What does this fold into?
Amino acid sequence: MKLWPRTLGMQLVIVTSVAVLASNLVVAVWFELGRMRLNESAQTERLLDRAASVATLMSSIPPKARQAATHALASNLWQFQIRTGKDAIQPMTVQEAALAARLKAMLPAKSAKLPVTVRFLEAAPADDPEGGRRRSTRKSTAVEITMPVVRNTQLVATFFQPPRAPWPAEVLLAAIVAVVVASAAAAYAARRVARPLSELAQAASVVAHGGAAPRVPEVGPDDIRNAAIAFNAMTDQVSRTLESQRQLLSAVGHDLRTPITAMRINIEFVEDHEMRERLQKNLDELQDLTEAVLSAARGAGGESRRQVDLSALVESLCADLDDLGEPVSWAGHDPAPLQCRSNEIRRAVRNLIENAVSYGKKADVALQETPEAYEIVVEDEGPGIPEQDRSRVFEPFVRLEGSRNADTGGSGLGLTLVKAIAEGHGGTVVLEDRPKGGLRVRMRLPRDAKRA
It folds into this structure.
């Protein structure tokens, strides 16, 4: 339904307007049908009374004056004709017979003993070559009544039903006024409901794209206001929890640096060379783990977004790693402007490339784009990751390599940090098989990610 509006306010206005218009039409039709029934009943009474009165009058005047009297009584709606001779009884429908019986009851007692005929006719069109009138099989436009005046003399009265009056303009005007008033009321109600909901949706979108949750105005009807209050309380609690966890990780990381430094100094006094190398290697692993924890703590916090060329950022990172002798290739791409936290994106891409080099021997890096997003694609030639394990590798400290050796498995926080950074920008990270073998990682970053 392409023409159906997507906003709550417009939907409420349209539904209300259509409902009011439909109800007005139903009421108007109902009253119009009732009015038509009343008018038809009153018209039938007047028709019978006029026909009976004229027949009675004709019976009281001399025969020679009757023809002139019929011309004098004729009008646009009535025509009268005197006919002599024996009147043959003609078949009638049930409705015609009922009217004939009612008319006979209104005639004088002497005339009531003679036959009375009622026929519904359709007036002949102006271009009808035969002229005259035809028996109607549908709702009639004329009624022909044959009544006795005296024996062997009948009065044929033809009544032409007037055209139905059009609906009064007041009905249409009332419907228009009702629709306008109802639409204005619906627009006001929609504004009271839709605006707070729209602000709530915008705030939720900002949070989903990694931004700081703005305060939602706690206004509107009770239901909407309670939702805004609950949303503000939820975002406050989530922000406090995330900040508390970030501070805890940061404090732990910083506190670990001091004993690590002291232990490095003490190791220098160990005389056993082999023992000193093993201790030094253990301290290096602990140092790497500490730095990874600090990186995770800094994850999506602190840095402001700014406009950068994503293509240039990834290219410079690949160039730096290539200068260090890493097997990294860059496919090249046109400038790709993006609002982002550049240091976080650089850290995430570096983690992906280092993982590809560590597990897949090399890293082929490319940047792809769609109208909605950019995708940083990193491919390797390693064994890949089984499909059942692809969701687990994003969990903290999960390593599919079971030796727990830093040389072969890292700290287990690399992909966790990549996912946190991508989601902090409103994006995603997807793992998939490479057609020629190996793993392909896609980090998707929306172009229109909200500013934090």
